[in-house]
Design a protein that fits this description.
Layout (H helix, E strand, L loop, with lengths): L7 H4 L6 E5 L6 E11 L13 E7 L8 E7 L3 E13 L2 E8 L1
Antiparallel strand pairs: 1-2, 2-3, 3-6, 4-5, 5-6
């Protein structure tokens, strides 16, 4: 799947599941739980690459990771390079957004 364009329908069935990355300072994995996958409004243009969508992941850890490209692994989807941006912190953890245009 890494060579194909990603679309909302690839992620929607996996809401509520964990994507993981290795923790930099150890061999532990950090779980990024996919908590939302939704379409974004847009005006269709000729030759659109895909319909835009947004993903929201939550990490239970309160340490905020910098925005950047992360290789997320999922048991069904395999490895995906996704640019994540910290979007907020709550008692539940830190949320990260990924927007696909």
């Amino acid at each position: 799947m890494a060579d194909e364009k990603l679309v909302l329908e690839d992620f929607a069935p996996h809401v509520g599941t964990d994507f993981t990355i290795p923790r930099a300072e150890s061999s532990d994995l950090v779980a990024f739980k996919l908590i939302d996958a939704k379409p974004l409004p847009h005006k269709p243009n000729f030759g659109d690459f895909r319909d835009p969508f947004q993903l929201v992941f939550r990490v239970a850890d309160q340490d905020v990771q910098p925005q950047g490209l992360y290789r997320l692994s999922h048991p069904m989807m395999g490895d995906q390079d996704i640019f994540l941006v910290p979007a907020g912190r709550s008692e539940a953890g830190v949320d990260y957004c990924a927007t696909f245009n």
